[in-house]
UniProtKB/TrEMBL annotation, chain A:
GO cellular component terms, A-Z: ATP-binding cassette (ABC) transporter complex
CDD domains, alphabetized: TM_PBP2
Protein's name according to its UniProt entry: ABC transporter permease subunit
Keyword Membrane assigned: yes
Residue intervals of the ABC transmembrane type-1 domain: 17-205
Record keywords: Amino-acid transport, Cell membrane, Membrane, Transmembrane, Transmembrane helix, Transport
Membrane topology: Multi-pass membrane protein
Length: 218, 251
């Protein structure tokens, strides 16, 4: 292993790492919204909403992420929907993570004791007021661990969109290897960078979890 | 003047008829204690009163608001049910406080969300209610930082925050350690003395003797017998009442 290779590659790889973080953060934000509204649709009494949401969840949990990426990037242009690599990647990642998150949101909403809803409506609140003010704040706190986990998985999954030429960390590593012929050094360096960002985010999310879960009986 | 009027109230769970046609009138400032063996339908009766459980048949009137059972849901009906609930304070066996809110926030929630009261005004009201139940010093504690007895008193204050015409209690002390029962019963007694109308499901005989204007004994979804606590406890007429009282006294 040549130390100078590390020094030369590092700036490029750090740049690519920023791209990876960008992809993960944007995708998780979209996925959180998507997952949240899908969960609401799943518990709603309107059958059609529930059916559409269930279908979405079933499709995106039931197929490989890589296939989803290919369908969006290579498949959709055939019906005249052409997206650039980065939007395609973000779309695939957030649709995929949103499907998983919706399931954990739904479970966490259902896990709030039904006495909470009864106490709320007994005060004269409507179903939606009770959901918004009483049920959802509790279920979101319950869901924080699974949200953290989804985010970690999502960071790793960003490596899959290297296959559609997005120059995130893994794609950039491969490009560097083509120049330097040092696969072991470069890939280990990439692995180290993934490990660092995941560890940093884990610690941050752990703190958040501790802060918010104080007064919730689980 | 009657506060609650139930006419032929029935409730079926599947084929199981849990309430078999209850007629009941509760007058202003009256304290009614409801007793009966497990499964006799006491909780179901209270829950049907505010449509936490949809009754199968019958008419419920609280104050001037009347709602009939088993009608299709419509916006108008939802509003009528909401009116019933606003007139009624419900106190649960398990307290059901909002765990992510402090004691005072629990009590402020109804006025703010349902009545649109200003935060500061709601805070003042909540503070005075918490003082009334002896928890003026515990305003900023979360439910998890309070004892069971304190939590139930916060729950009572929360129910009072909507200025209800009647308070319904479903076994308010049966989830409590014995040494905490008294403080909750005392708060309820004080309320009764102020003239609050109350329906209380409880097996606390002493509370019934001291506070109840009327004791109702239920079994198998019907009212078996009712009277003053003296009549019911000292000379029950029905065999089922006698058997039940024997069992309660043994405990
Ligand atoms: N949601 C429900 N679904 C089906 N059956 C129910 C439901 N709630 C109550 N029941 C049944 O209705 C009957 C009366 O129950 P209820 O809870 O009203 O009795 P209770 O008098 O309050 O008893 P306890 O003293 O044990 O609280 C019981 O047989 C119970 O199994
Ligand atoms: Mg009961």
């Amino acid at each position: 292993m040549d130390i100078s290779i590390i020094i030369e590659s590092l700036p490029t790889l750090l740049n690519a790492t920023l791209m990876t973080i960008f992809l993960a953060v944007v995708s998780i934000l979209i996925a959180l919204l998507l997952g949240f509204f899908t969960a609401l649709a799943r518990i709603s009494k309107i059958k059609l909403l529930d059916a559409i949401a269930s279908l979405y969840v079933s499709i995106f949990r039931g197929t490989p992420l890589l296939v989803q990426i290919f369908v969006i990037y290579y498949g959709l242009p055939q019906v005249n929907i052409e997206l650039d690599p980065i939007p395609s990647g973000i779309l695939a990642l957030s649709l995929n993570a949103g499907a998983y998150l919706s399931e954990s949101f739904r479970a966490s909403i259902l896990s709030v004791d039904k006495g909470q809803m009864e106490a709320s409506v007994s005060l004269g609140m409507t179903y939606w007021q009770a959901l918004r003010r009483i049920i959802l704040p509790q279920s979101l706190r319950i869901a924080i661990p699974t949200m953290s986990n989804s985010f970690i998985v999502l960071i790793k999954d960003t490596s899959l969109i290297s296959v559609i030429t997005v120059t995130e960390l893994l794609q950039m590593s491969s490009l560097l290897i083509a120049k330097t012929f040092e696969p072991l050094t470069i890939y280990l360096l990439a692995a180290a960078l993934y490990w660092i960002i995941i560890t940093v985010f884990s610690v941050m999310l752990d703190r958040l979890e501790k802060r918010t879960s104080q007064h919730i009986a689980l | 003047m009657s506060i609650i009027q139930l006419t032929n109230l029935k409730k079926k769970f599947g084929t199981n008829e849990v309430l078999q046609g209850i007629d009941l009138t509760v007058n202003k400032s009256e304290v009614v204690v409801l007793m009966g063996p497990s499964g006799s339908g006491k909780s179901t009766l209270l829950r049907c009163l505010t449509f936490l459980e949809e009754p199968t048949e019958g008419v419920i009137q609280i104050g001037q608001q009347e709602v009939a059972a088993g009608e299709k849901t419509s916006r108008k009906r939802k509003n009528e049910i909401k009116e019933l609930r606003k007139r009624t304070g419900f106190v649960f066996q398990q307290f059901n406080l909002f765990p992510h809110k402090t004691a005072i926030e629990n009590v402020m929630e109804g006025p703010i969300v349902v009545q649109g009261v200003e935060r500061e005004e709601a805070r003042k009201l909540a503070k005075s209610l918490l003082e009334k139940v002896g928890l003026g010093e515990r305003c900023d504690h979360y439910p998890s930082q309070l004892s069971g007895g304190q939590q139930q008193r916060v729950a009572i204050a929360r129910a009072l925050s909507m200025k209800p015409m009647v308070m319904l209690y479903d076994e308010p002390t049966s989830a409590l350690d014995p040494e905490l029962v008294r403080e909750v019963l005392q708060v309820m007694k004080d309320l009764a003395q102020e003239g609050m109308t109350m329906v209380v499901v409880t097996h606390e005989m002493n509370f019934a003797k001291e506070v109840a204007d009327r004791v109702i004994f239920m079994d198998g979804g019907v009212i078996v017998e009712e009277g003053t606590s003296e009549e019911i406890f000292n000379c029950p007429k029905e065999e089922r009442t006698k058997r039940f009282l024997m069992r309660v006294k043994e405990e």
